[in-house]
């Protein structure tokens, strides 16, 4: 992707590697940070705050290696730190000197702007805090750095003592900070608070303003956009909203809203079209499962389940979608369930490559079968492959079969030392041959899976590529009178894609067998084998 350097008139400032790393459960190595920095640069953010050089060896090393190893195409690297300590010269404060020596072209310093924090946390006078802001900005400017100032607790501070909060903003602006960033550090603001305060500070100081919104009230993205509407031209965000406590303004909905709804071009269109991939790639590096319900980029963001929604979507997807998912690299999906009607099944068929438009009866039969099966405990929402087999059964008047089961048996042996042995035997027919195979596993389902593979791999060598990647069991207690039912969902991969299958029975192994049968049948269909229908 060719990259344009973003205009400096509006800053998308990413702090995933600093504030994002403050989230519980995230622990980034230097290599992780470098990988994320590359993803963010490719996405087109203007600034990447990499951490606090001097605060820990990892962040110090990151700044050295990022500058040596990454040829940033769009982003400028930013070092984060604090104002000098009370009572010392900025040039004598090792923390401030380390910021200048990190080599990043931009430094953000955090400054206290709430009088109570100056008294209680810094334990200094309000006047000395103003001098700390001025001296630190001037020192860093004198060392050739561009400086942004994060005014910590600005909104709470402004509501408690507006005159002092404004004094801090002015001290930052007048001493040479390019951006005065108003921070909702405790995340308690609502958009109306942010709107009023940003407008007042802009009118009072004339400074270029930024916004840094924590998400404690669930309003960080809304607060960020409210600040932009009120005149802020610098937004601080983190990928997937990672950050201290509940997180920060999420970079992806902020960028998408600015670009697609405010008409402000902040990243290249081609990068926006890769946004879903970027979000998931960063989630992979931080080792957190991407939230399926994240706006714009979640796998559920454009997934439709209600029959009535689908019937309108069939006419025009815009009727139930706020944007075209492809603009952000996502896609529309139909979820098959007992809430589906004809339209949804038709659209799902299209998604799977079946044109069902001309056969109302067939679509009706599929809808009825889905509803009956879901009443028995099946769930097709996460089992597209089982649904496709059901659909194919109706379309072709016969389910695809590659093997016919004669019987299976599983034995679990409890040993005196507390361990278990699991053995399975399957008897089946495939391509006219009777196959009897055994398997051992670390559990009964694993043993059954191994016996099945063992028996079939000689006849269908493609099965060697298939791998069970997820296995979920749910007991559907009380749903069918006093009897409980077991539902098993299996995800299978052939190395290039993944598919889900479902089985339901009163016995967990029987339910697992059904899901395995569908998984292998679907895998063989995908591999191009001709069924023995
Ligand atoms: C709102 C935010 O998220 S800001 C980002 C905060 N990020 C982090 O804290 C992560 C990295 N932090 C660290 O590694 C450590 O806290 C360090 C290296 C910065 C400081 O460590 P220590 O010197 O042991 O101090 P400690 O962590 O207890 O912090 C308190 C000190 O910071 C001072 N301090 C707090 N805020 C500020 C500020 N905005 N400007 C200057 N000093 C500050 C306090 O006055 C106190 O100083 P004192 O020890 O002289 O009394
Ligand atoms: C600077 C920052 O992270 C905050 O005020 O929340």
TrEMBL record:
Per its UniProt entry, which superkingdom is the organism in? Bacteria
Pathway listed: Amino-acid biosynthesis; L-isoleucine biosynthesis; 2-oxobutanoate from pyruvate: step 1/3
Give me the reactions it catalyses: pyruvate + acetyl-CoA + H2O = (3R)-citramalate + CoA + H(+)
Q: What's the EC number here?
A: 2.3.3.21
Q: Which residues form a coiled coil?
A: none
Q: Does the keyword Amino-acid biosynthesis apply?
A: yes
Ranges where the Pyruvate carboxyltransferase domain occurs = 10-273
Give the record's keywords alphabetically.
Amino-acid biosynthesis, Branched-chain amino acid biosynthesis, Isoleucine biosynthesis, Transferase
Q: Which GO terms describe its biological process?
A: isoleucine biosynthetic process; L-leucine biosynthetic process
Q: Which GO terms describe its molecular function?
A: (R)-citramalate synthase activity; 2-isopropylmalate synthase activity
Q: Which SMART domains does this chain map to?
A: LeuA_dimer
| NCBIfam families the UniProt entry points to | citramal_synth
Which PANTHER family does the UniProt record give? (R)-CITRAMALATE SYNTHASE (PTHR43538:SF1), ALPHA-IPM SYNTHASE/HOMOCITRATE SYNTHASE (PTHR43538)
| Name of this chain's protein | Citramalate synthase
The record lists the organism as Streptomyces oceani
